[in-house]
């Protein structure tokens, strides 16, 4: 069984977001336009389906079509607890915070683990940490 993979529906910023996440996490970006999929419910060059390839983090994204609501994170965090070595996780935290907002600094907790929270510039709330 595979883990759930986030699929973000964004307000016309899917290509920019995927490029950003590709830079943060590594790997390549694959994106298919509405025109490529024969869709006419949005701009021809909008992303109908995009994803990260060959990187350590799996993520899908698309631009919303018609009157679909875009992503709004409330009561949800994407957890990257222990998803990589501490140095990599620190780098991801810093990179995700660029243009976003640090909710809680990455810090050591009384129980010995380290974690922090950031909302990136696309509104995605991340929990990053390590033992």
TrEMBL record:
Domain Glyoxalase/fosfomycin resistance/dioxygenase intervals: 14-126
Domain of life according to the entry: Bacteria
Lineage of the organism: Bacteria, Bacillati, Actinomycetota, Actinomycetes, Geodermatophilales
Protein name in the entry: Glyoxalase/fosfomycin resistance/dioxygenase domain-containing protein
InterPro entries, A to Z: Glyas_Bleomycin-R_OHBP_Dase, Glyas_Fos-R_dOase_dom
Matches recorded under PANTHER family: PROTEIN YJDN, PROTEIN YJDN-RELATED
Pfam families: Glyoxalase (PF00903)
């Amino acid at each position: 069984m595979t883990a759930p993979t986030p699929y973000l529906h964004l307000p016309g910023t899917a290509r920019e977001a995927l490029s950003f996440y590709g830079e943060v996490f590594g790997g390549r970006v694959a994106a298919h336009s509405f025109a490529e999929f024969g869709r006419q419910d949005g701009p021809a060059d909008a992303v109908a389906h995009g994803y990260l390839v060959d990187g350590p983090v799996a993520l899908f994204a698309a631009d919303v079509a018609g009157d679909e609501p875009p992503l709004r994170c409330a009561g949800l965090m994407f957890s990257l607890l222990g998803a990589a070595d501490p140095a990599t996780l620190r780098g991801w935290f810093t990179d995700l915070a660029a243009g976003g907002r640090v909710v809680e600094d990455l810090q050591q907790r009384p129980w010995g683990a380290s974690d922090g929270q950031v909302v990136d510039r696309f509104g995605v709330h991340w929990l990053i940490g390590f033992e």
